DNA sequence: CGTCAATATCGACAGTCGTCGATGGCTGCG
DNA sequence: CGCAGCCATCGACGACTGTCGATATTGACG
């Protein structure tokens, strides 16, 4: 599965309803799970560091120093981001290269900007 | 401020200097604080319920039943959302009316989609 | 095969979070 | 004035989270 952000949007976009249906509990749960992965300053910095790194990918040893945390902690945060579908993990030899999942952040942003609007 | 990102260039094959400035720790902290307010299924549902409610506003008594939680818990969640700048609180008589802050969600979405892109 | 380096996993600990019942402060109305 | 209803705050409790050090796993290289 890519992400659980595929909101149940029907193709009835011609007539904007006066009152939109609120988000369903399962959809809220799924969106909250993704947002929980993002709602940590260290993980936001890790995402940004990976994105800004040369080639758009970085390994753990590139990230421990900038965030100033231990290697197991950084590894843990990266796993959270991978499980949330925001990062990919590509192990080449001894090194594990992490990269942004294309469009993942945009999907979250789109849901926030459209699905919760009245 | 331009923090001196001394890029400790080692002789390691995996470490390379950053090519763009990542998000600053204070910015990450601020964004994480907002995302933390959003990263809860109940609060997402409350936001959606308020947005979908007649007139774009709702009081606590309108929300306790749909989310199925106690009144103090709903009140607590609404306070979190107000403190995060996502909801406004307007007390008229005995009732407290909550409404979406215009553009607040769009701002969060924009930061997610652009600031973390690298 | 033995060693070294990069990562992942484990166990533990302090801090935070979501939830509840009880309580108190307000406001409107008899 | 006194009662009733709406809401916020308080105190408590279980659950989850971020962090660490220690340890296990894996691949590269003599």
Detailed description of the structure:
Chains A, B: One of its GO terms (molecular function) is DNA-binding transcription factor activity. Chains A, B: Keywords: DNA-binding, Membrane, Transcription, Transcription regulation, Transmembrane, Transmembrane helix. The structure is a homodimer. Chain A has helices at about 25-40, 40-50, 60-65, 70-85, 105-115; strands at about 55-60, 85-90, 95-100. In chain A, α2 (about 40-50) crosses α4 (about 70-85). Chain A is elongated, with a radius of gyration of 17 Å. In chain A, a hairpin with a 2-residue loop joins β2 (about 85-90) and β3 (about 95-100). Chain A has one domain: Winged helix-like DNA-binding domain superfamily/Winged helix DNA-binding domain (Arc Repressor Mutant, subunit A, Orthogonal Bundle), CATH 1.10.10.10. Chain A has five helices and three strands; from the N terminus they run ααβααββα. A three-stranded antiparallel sheet of chain A has the order 1-3-2. The first copy, chain A, is α+β, with helices and mostly antiparallel strands. The longest helix of chain A has 14 residues, at about 25-40. Mean pLDDT of chain A is about 90; it is low at about 5-15. Chain A is about 50% helix and about 15% strand. Chains A and B meet through α1, α2, α3 and α5 of A and α1, α2 and α5 of B. Chain B binds a DNA duplex (30 and 30 nucleotides) through α4.
């Amino acid at each position: 599965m890519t992400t659980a952000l595929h909101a149940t949007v029907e193709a009835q976009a011609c007539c904007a309803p006066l009152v939109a249906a609120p988000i369903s509990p399962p959809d809220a749960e799924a969106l909250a799970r993704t947002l929980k992965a993002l709602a940590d300053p260290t993980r936001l910095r890790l995402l940004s560091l990976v994105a800004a790194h040369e080639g758009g990918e970085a390994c753990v040893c590139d990230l421990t120093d900038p965030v100033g945390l231990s290697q197991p902690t950084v590894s843990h945060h990266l796993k959270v981001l991978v499980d949330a579908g925001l990062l990919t993990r590509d192990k080449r030899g001894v090194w594990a290269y992490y990269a942004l999942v294309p469009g993942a952040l945009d999907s979250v942003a789109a849901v926030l900007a459209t699905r919760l609007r009245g």
